[in-house]
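Practice problem: predict the structure.
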Amino acid sequence: MPTLLTRRLALLADEKHRAVLAGGLRGIERETLRVDGAGQLARTRHPVALGAALTHPQITTDYAETLLEFITPAQSDIATTIASLDSIHRYAYSKLGDELLWSQSMPCALPAEEDIEIAWYGTSNLGTLKHVYRRGLALRYGKAMQCIAGIHYNYSLDERLWRVLAENEPNPKQLGAKAYQSEAYLATIRNFRRYSWLLMYLFGASPALSAGFLRGRPHQLEQLSDDTLYLPYATSLRMSDLGYQNDAQSGLRPHENCLDSYVAALTRAVNQPYAPYAELGTKRDGEWIQLSTNVLQIENEYYATIRPKRVIQTGERPIQALCARGVQYIEVRCMDVDPFEPVGISVAAGRLLDAFLLFCALEESPAITPEEGARHTANFARTVKEGRRPGLLLDGDHGPVALAQWGEELLDRIRPAAELLDSLRGDTAHADSLRAQAAKLADPSLTPSAQVLVALREHGNSFAAFGLAQSEQHAAYFRQAAPGAAETAALDAMGAASLAEQAAMEAAPRIAFDDYVAAYRNSNLCHSTPGCD
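Answer:
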């Protein structure tokens, strides 16, 4: 009896539908700290030579002033996307002087909290809003957390693909095209939650961190050396409870059984006061310290491993965009920076992600109960802290199952999606990546997290020494070949335009910032009634 997955794969393999499978887009956002030649956090402002962080479309900052974020254009092939990311890195290095880009997800040894600069975006109301939001993050999570870096993988399928599926499958709810697409992306996200532990095993690359990172917080890490803490079988401490976690978000579980429910949960969170934040208030000595005293200041404060997304319009909030026009793409947020790759991610990893996400999109995806959601969360948490532990068991659909066995079964289920993608290209790139991942399941020493621990031993078990060595190696790679003249001219023009745009925003008449924040907080989100069957 054919499954939903096999029926959908056969449908898309039909010659008349193959073009829609090739039409999706891939984009990457890579975060990376600027450090000095000694591997210490840079104390300089965001380089003006790179443009304005507020308005530049490809080079900005994330939470800290020194945490650069490179944003590629959305492109149809991941190899092209990564080539764009490579170009942005080369351009940045042509403007950075002696500074380096940190090679790890977990930050270098950090100075005192007061010496970590929060990202600054100028004096416009929008720029000030972004800065105050980050002040709130520092208040709620600490500044050290603002220096963690990751890879965000933005993924979409051609909108025609959803229409092909809708036209060839029962549609008992009689959903229109927009609603069908949104529901399909939410189904993709549910499957991602079921199976994303596999990505953490295969690509997690942060089993160790600087001893000073935790700032005295209690932990169960082991001492690897004087300056380094680790867990021997961890894959991604970045994605563990040592990352962005606090009590306010602990009860926030926007489930993905339908878009209305997801949006309603986030809408409540940005409007629901949280007593400890209320005690702090929004101002101290007349200065804004956070945008609100609610569970979330804005919806993007919710730290999910994956998010439904829609490109926003000027003055629009993310939830408003989802309500008005539905889900356009998904953002995968759990990928560590690969310290062995100059741009932080390999093409082979991108090929695996594409096959994995296509599988998630086409596979059956029933609603997730709260109990199932807790099980998926536990499997993910166990993998990031103990993923390479021999004989590790996860909680499968039918009871305990060995991680390696379940992983092999999953790769077998993903393989037809990889082969379909390869048939479009006329090569075996996706299937080759699957074989490489299967080898990691058979031999945990091949995983990035295990390779990091081997490399640490070669550097005296020092996270700082290993991170600096990799950063220097990557810097040499980028500096040995300057970006092309056309690429340089294009990014120079973007930088100049971004500076001019920020200057114009700051020169324009504007309302008082207090009124601006009030209008932003009171902006209509989405008041539809959640109704997931």
